[in-house]
Amino acid sequence: MTQDMNEQQPDDPERREFLAKAISVVAGGTIVSIPVGAGLATLVSPLRGEGQGGIKIRLTSVDDLPEDGSPKLYQVVAERSDAWTKYPAKPLGSVFLRKLEDGEVVAFNTSCPHAGCSVGFRSKEEGYYCPCHESKFLLDGSRGDVCVSPRGLDSLEVDKDRLKEGDVWVTFQNFAAGIEEKKAI
Ligand code: FES
Q1: 36-48: pLDDT as tens digits
Q2: What mean pLDDT do residues 81-93 have?
Q3: What is the pTM of this model?
Q4: Does residue 130 have its Cβ closer than 6 Å to ligand 1?
Q5: Which of 31, 112, 145, 146 maximizes ligand 1 atoms within 8 Å of its Cβ, making it the mutation to test the pocket?
Q6: Are 29 and 118 within 8 A, CB to CB?
Q7: Nearest 5°: phi and psi at 62?
Q8: How far apart, in whole angstroms, are the C-alpha atoms of residue 129 and residue 32?
């Protein structure tokens, strides 16, 4: 993969302001009522389809995740530049992160596998919910008792080595909606 991917912390005021705006838009469009964070990737190439291996991005530190196993929402934002131009940052999607009892972290793409709506989180007991066609998903991402989605939520790869160092790096990727198979696009 030729993408040059690295993390950038939102240090400068302009960047912080952009992230705050982007996050409020996403939070306002879903039923999520949980804390929201963001990860920013810098791509030295055009934004590409995640089918080419996804975008590896640091979303947070392990310590930032709730100890009780509740998921936390992170927006994935990418900015790109080429030899002449730096383009504005653009939201690519979002991810639920959960820390398990054994310290492992699991990640789910919030895009519903049925038709791509944003899935929200209700509670640990009720799990995740997609309002578009009223589908439920359990806390582990599997299909709930009422669910028209052909598969459970799409898990994303979490870098185990970085996790040992206390950082949560995820390979963000989108998958084809409406089919049983989990197929990267
Ligand atoms: S898009 Fe989620 S249930 Fe249809």
Answers
A1: 566 665 555 444 4
A2: 79
A3: 0.76
A4: yes
A5: 112
A6: yes
A7: -60, -35
A8: 10
